[in-house]
Amino acid sequence: MAGSISGFYDSFADVYHLVFADWEASMMRQASAIGSILEQECAVAGATVFDCACGIGTQSLGLAKAGFSVTGADLSAGAVQRARFEAAARKLDIPFYVADMRNLDEIPSAGFDAVICMDNALPHLLNEADLTQAAEQIRAKLRIGGTFLASIRDYDAILARPSVVQNPAFYSDDGKRRIVFQVWDWQDERRYVFHIYITRETSAGWANFHGASTYRAVLREEIAGILATRGFANIRWRFPAESGFYQPIVIATAVG
After folding, report:
1. Which of 42, 50, 87, 131 has a CA that sits 20 to 30 A from residue 148's CA?
2. Which of 238, 237, 221, 248 has the alpha carbon at shortest distance from 154?
3. Could you give the count of Cα atoms lying within 13 Å of 219 in the half-sphere of its Cβ?
4. What structural domains does the chain harbor?
5. Which among 23, 89, 90, 85 has a CA at the least distance from the CA of 59?
6. Is the Cα torsion angle 55, 227, 71, 92 positive or negative in sign?
7. How far apart are CA 102 and CA 24, in angstroms?
8. Is the pLDDT at 90 greater than 60, yes or no?
9. What residues contact 88, with CB distance under 8 A and at least 6 apart?
10. 156: how many CB neighbours lie within 10 A of its CB?
């Protein structure tokens, strides 16, 4: 049985960067892809961006380095602590808060040019009511005409042929091996427990990390339908071949 979402990411925070071959390079690639969309949509230099599921800062840090004015929040206090550390190490001025995207009252600012919610964060919300509540809270943080960006796994394709194992990735860190792989334990036709394993070769021997959390596979039309009822219009999708980002991205405009 998977534990709480916050507990999973609290335990994951210290090693999250290890899922990437090179976290810094991935950070900048993602910032380039997301930043390009934000520049087109916001048409404002140095747009204000609220990352409502910032994790350890993968998108927030890259976007701030690219010149955006970024605020971040995450449900996990451990992830936020890591994000603050990483921002300070890079001399980036990014306020980070601990907050659930279903209740963003703790975030003092509003009227953002954009809100982002990347890396398949929305499917942690396991029912339509929670997704709807998150959409309402996100809309309340945007100015009229502001942009919402979110990325999810391509569940439309996955549900046609459910995956159970993601092929392991093999990396080398200064000559020592690192292996990262996932197992998806489906509980029903929509929900699965996501298991992440990281095995590292260290000077003291092999070190292992395992974490588990639950996702609900949500279809693109379901997300678009919820956004349309909660103050968003002009809802469309961009896919990796076009956007350069590794997951499908929904783009929506906040309306009055």
Report:
1. 87
2. 248
3. 9
4. 5-154+218-254 (3.40.50.150), 157-215 (2.20.25)
5. 23
6. positive
7. 29
8. yes
9. none
10. 16
Tokens of 9: 């990411």
Place of tokens 């690219």: 66
pLDDT tens sequence across 173-205 = 999 999 999 999 999 999 999 999 999 999 999
Non-local CB neighbours of 115 within 8 Å, separated by 6+ positions: 49, 50, 51, 52, 138, 141, 142, 146, 147, 148, 149
pLDDT digits (tens, 9 = 90+) for 142-168: 999 999 999 999 999 999 998 898 889
- In the three-class reduction of DSSP (H, G, I as helix; E, B as strand; rest coil), residue 20 is classed as coil
- Helix, strand, or coil (residue 57): coil
Q: Which ranges in 145-206 belong to alpha helices (H)?
A: 155-158
Three-class SS state of 140: helix
Q: 101 in helix, strand or coil?
A: coil
Residues in Cβ contact with 243 at an 8 Å cutoff, skipping those fewer than 6 apart: 33, 36, 37, 249
Residue among 98, 83, 57, 79 at smallest CA distance from 12: 79
Cβ-in-10-Å burial (0-12, 13-18, 19+) of 208 comes to: exposed
Mean pLDDT of the chain: 96
Quickly tell me which residue has 């999708």 as its tokens.
Answer: 237
What one-letter code names the amino acid at 10?
A: D
Give CA–CA dist 30/146, Å, rounded: 20
Distance CA 14, CA 189 (A): 32
